[in-house]
Amino acid sequence: MSVVDDEDATLRERLADEPVPALRVLAVVAVLVAVEFGALANLVMSLPWDAVGAALPGFLQGAAATIAGVGDGLAGLPTLLSRSVIDNAGYQLPSGEWVGTFMGLSPAAAWLLRVALIYAYGFVWLLVGWWSYLVYRDNYRHADWAPVDDMVGRFRNHSWGLFGLAIIFAFVVLAVFAPALGPTTVDANIADPYLHSIEYYSEETGGVEEIYVGDANGESQSRGQGGENVGPMQYDQYDRFHPFGTLPSGKDLFTFMAAGARVSLFIGVASLVLAGGAAVVFALATAYYKGLVDLGIVIASDSIQALPQLLVIMLASFVLSGTWLANLYNGGVVLALLFGLTGWPGLWRAVRGPALQVSEREWIDAAKSFGQRPSVTMRKHMLPYVVGYLLIYASLTLGGVIIGVAGLSFLGLGINAPTPEWGRAVSAGQPYVATPSWHISLLPGILIVIVVTGFNALGDGIRDAIDPQSDVETGQQDQTAAAGGGA
Amino acid sequence: MVADSSRSDAGTAAEPADDRLLEVENLQTVFHTERETIRAVDGISFGIAEGETLGLVGESGSGKSVTARSIMGLVDSPGELLPDSSIRFDGRELTGLSETQYESVRGGGVAMVFQDPLSTLNPVYTVGNQIEEALSLHRGLSGLEATEKAIELLEDVGIPDAARRVSEYPHEFSGGMRQRAVIAMALACDPDLLICDEPTTALDVTIQAQILELLADLQEEHGLSILFITHDMGVIAEVCDRVAVMYAGEVVEQAPVVELFENPRHPYTRGLLRSIPSTQRGADRLETIEGEVPTPNAPATDCRFAPRCPEAFDACREVHPEPVPVATETADADADHTAACLLYPEDETREQAVDRHAIEDAPPGAGAVDSGGESR
């Protein structure tokens, strides 16, 4: 600390005193946002605003329409990393020349370039995050040292945790940039193949012809031994590039996987927010009130845990399949709800111990003794001590949810067809495992394993980083206690 | 009322309840465990007048803190107050209040200072933040106003450079300053009664003296009543107006502080006073009371101190003593001095005295629980 006066300054004052580093970060962030602004606006506009607009009172509807117009305009802005800028769709003339692709590159090269750029872009965001932490720490933070510095330091030396972080980073980028990453789009290739068409060079007619995607898909199927097969990194006869090959239906597997990653991530995060919220509320209530409240929740959680989670989810998703609930986000919402409702006891058990521990601290008594309301006491004096544990267990459980969702889709439950889900790809490829079309099952299967391992590794890393004793070699004894949860 | 029967003849000890701020009568706090019911506080009665400091003294495990928590309504399951207990604060019966009703008493009516200032303050919030929390609850202050009031309170409790200290965290405070901050937090609620549960135990002796002085000043300034819990007779001598000596969940002797020190009547009080190092100059070894406090798990049918008492006789193991007035002629006439010991009243023969205790003891104890005796 330089001057004594500095210590009292609020963050805002410290920012005003020394704005340059912060502005530098802000400038980089602005550039990063600007190049992808169109995609961002597109994402915002793709939310079901119609429903919101209809619910608004009349005089606001006009304003809403204006905003919607502006939003649509923004959504139309070109973005750097979109399919239209670096296009990988095109056809090859007999001369070997590519028409329609980005700078005449081959579709494979164009696609790889786009993927590389998108991952680079994601990586830059990661770096900016790290950089802003450093800027905050070195320029604006009140304290020279905080426990979080040690946590970050421990995590940086935790190679297993870093491996997990890398996997999860790749997975999240895949999910977030799914529309731009696939060689084609879900809309054109999977959902409505007969509403879209492609051009190709026909040797029969000697000219460029147009064909429905659906018809083209029929010629690019992967059907194993003796049948047609489009394997990983191959072109089909319409000059379309398939990084992961095609599904038995001829649809592009990579596009399917990228969109499926989005669904998996949504269900995983939404169900954990739900389960984690319930777990924290219940843990605080049981720790604060003890007695009957505790007993009641113990019984409730025991009852839920006594049921086989996947079986209950199967039953419930079948029962709910005809209702409006099952149509929200193609069945994703109902799965998230079910995983959340059946998953909270596990998380609750994990955070109940720490919550009980905190509730015995004297400052809780002190808060009670000056008449603080129970809800405030829980939120202010107990919650901060529990959240860390919850984060660890949630990240460990996320992998379990992803496996669970994939398992349900494998069985033909859960996410409604044709919305992509990884488990459905595994299921579709099952008859062809021992044939040239091995990729259909194997690639999604390997991805599931890697992602789940990644979440567990990340959770392990965070846990060891938070625990100051893990510096010591003997501090690892509770490893098994926290090992993977979920379905 | 059943509670009254035990104190009907206690003479001056039973002052009219109305003019006292806090009136505890026949308080019984029990803890139900799987094996037995622990009677941590077993039928104690005392009162605190406005502006008065009552010292509650006794060994560890004699039920002092449970008494404090009972008054605050902080007895958690498996503990409970037995139905005969009565705690009247400012004319309002506190036993049986719901949790929400109790919230209005806590802080504004009765505030508490705990033993260990480090664990009373939440380490993740600044000291000012925690004082402001109490301020916003009890005085409706927030924002800048609350900060100013918090600084004022910190100045009141003698923290130098309060304006800067208010934004510091508990770990940046020394032990004595933390306790001052905790007291400031209690004062922020503007209470009428302050319960200090061994507020100086965790502090070193010089700081102790400062804190005691501070409490005395604040009492004068704010007109506080204080219930001061300690095991340190020296501290009692310094701060209290009256003293209640607790042993195994019961009050064995109650007297004004000077009277108690000059004329201790109960053998336990005498033992306690003899075990203060500074009063025993020249002695080779410090005198102690042999043995330890028993855990009371059934209604008393004898004197709980008897096994350790140098003056015990046969009747002590059969009759439960009740508080009787023991003021001597030399003492102030209305010195309200009681002791629960079969040796008193002194002007009666031993048989008469024992009979008197036996009769007084009968109503509350009769047939309630069959006498299983004490487990020692």
TrEMBL record, chain A:
The keyword Transmembrane applies. It comes from the Archaea. It is found in: Cell membrane. InterPro entries: BP-dependent_transpt_permease, MetI-like, MetI-like_sf, OppC_N. GO terms for biological process: transmembrane transport. Keywords: Cell membrane, Membrane, Transmembrane, Transmembrane helix, Transport. PANTHER family: D,D-DIPEPTIDE TRANSPORT SYSTEM PERMEASE PROTEIN DDPC-RELATED, OLIGOPEPTIDE TRANSPORT SYSTEM PERMEASE PROTEIN APPC. This is Peptide/nickel transport system permease protein.
Automatic annotation (TrEMBL), chain B:
Its EC number is 7.2.2.11. NCBIfam families: oligo_HPY. The complex is composed of two ATP-binding proteins (NikD and NikE), two transmembrane proteins (NikB and NikC) and a solute-binding protein (NikA). One of its GO terms (biological process) is peptide transport. Keywords: ATP-binding, Cell membrane, Ion transport, Membrane, Nucleotide-binding, Translocase, Transport. One of its GO terms (cellular component) is plasma membrane. Gene3D superfamilies: P-loop containing nucleotide triphosphate hydrolases. It comes from the Archaea. GO terms for molecular function: ABC-type nickel transporter activity; ATP binding; ATP hydrolysis activity. It is found in: Cell membrane. Signal peptide: none annotated. Residues 347-376 are annotated as: Disordered. This is Nickel import system ATP-binding protein NikD.
